[in-house]
Amino acid sequence: MSKLELRKQVLAIEEIFHEGGPVVEVPHMRGAAFAIIKNPFAGRYEADIQGFMDDLRPLGLQLAQKLAYALGGADKIEGYGKASLVGAAGELEHGALWHAPGGYAMREVLKGTKAIVPSAKKVGGMGARIDVPITHINASYVRSHFDSMEIGVNDAPRADEMLLALVMSTGPRIHSRSGGLEASDIKGEDGLK
Description:
single chain; alpha+beta; CATH 3.30.1330.110; seven-stranded mixed beta sheet; AA_synth_put; Amino acid synthesis; BB2672
């Protein structure tokens, strides 16, 4: 039986037309889909917590599908990341349970990604925010896609809750010009280059 108790979901989409330079015709899009759930381990130490990852898998898939659709479809996604924000009665390890359900859900929806899904996690009070790292879906060394998206919500996480997030983007940062490996030069062999 699932231990998942969902309080709310949030979908946030940014359309970025410029960062101080010329306005682009097609905006760079960055989005987050996240859920606020009850932390079933809040307020106590529990030695065996891995089973909860199975309860999180359907949520990960739902969020990944919703986010890819909102950004124009899975074929438009070039960057991704994930994060968890644990309420004060929980512990960092509870947020670590999101690694596999969140990451593998995006891989399933985006089909064939090679790069590791970057992540962040922390414990914070109500209204806390977290920066979710973003890298290219097939090569972590593609510098133009190094990015992040700050997320949070004013009434979460409550002490006995967790915020679980997925983030995707449709391309490089607007006006990227920092050099390094270009997306067009990806070899796609190891998830790095």
